[in-house]
Amino acid sequence: MRYAVSAPLGEKLERFVKNGGTLLFTYISAMVNENDLCYLGGFPGAGLRKVFGIWNEEIDTLYPEDSNTVRMNDGKEYRAADYCELIHTEGAEVLARYTEDFYAGMPALTANGYGNGKAYYQAFRDDGAFADMLVSRLLKGCGISGAFDGELPEGVTAHSRTDGENTYVFVQNFSDNEKKIETKSEWVNTETKEKTTENIVVKPLQTLILMQ
């Protein structure tokens, strides 16, 4: 959700997609500029309406106990909660639609080819399952892989940095439970100097700095 987008930033994002980039925006994005002044001419503003190929007409704010269902073109369904935008396509391909309420059948996820790139728009807030699926799919499509072979356990993040010679991976466990990360590569714990090619155990609220 990127509520405020300045005109210069909008131009940069347009060039990014046009030159082959992949861009993902969600509900309540590009509605105002850097001064919190509303864009005229339809949302998303900042010149991004043509990039995403959609027009955001309205937003349905749901009560905490309410929800909607979003169905992908492959039949898989996901839960939508809190915010559901009513968008119309202006050239974008519809990848998922709402199944309930007065806007059943309207687009919930779109993809628009723009120049050499593609812009995706998620029109609703989900419970995390949809975002995990979508981001994983986009990363795979862009040829971006994680530091480890499989998926990370829930509550664990991994961020890599390089100094030009070595690559360091910062593994953080934000949960109160011990987690295990499967790996087939050899890693060195920079603190203990121990090597491992098996499961990496991360204690509750622990941070590990690993090096290959």
Question: Can you describe this structure?
Answer:
It is a single chain. This protein folds into two domains: 7-141, Class I glutamine amidotransferase (GATase) domain (Rossmann fold, 3-Layer(aba) Sandwich), CATH 3.40.50.880; 156-211, Golgi alpha-mannosidase II (Immunoglobulin-like). The strands form three sheets. Strands 1, 2, 3, 4, 5, 6, 7 and 8 form an eight-stranded mixed β-sheet that branches. Strands 9-10-15-12-13 form a five-stranded antiparallel β-sheet, with no helix packed on it. A two-stranded antiparallel ribbon has the order 11-14. Strand 3 and strand 4 (77-89) form a beta hairpin. It has three helices and 15 strands. The chain is globular and about 60 Å long. It has helices spanning 7-18, 49-52, 129-141; strands at 22-26, 54-61, 68-72, 77-89, 93-98, 107-114, 117-122, 124-126, 156-162, 167-173, 179-181, 187-189, 195-196, 200-202, 207-211. The longest helix is centred in the middle third of the chain and has 13 residues, at 129-141. The model has no long low-confidence stretch (mean pLDDT 93). With 212 residues, the chain is mainly beta.
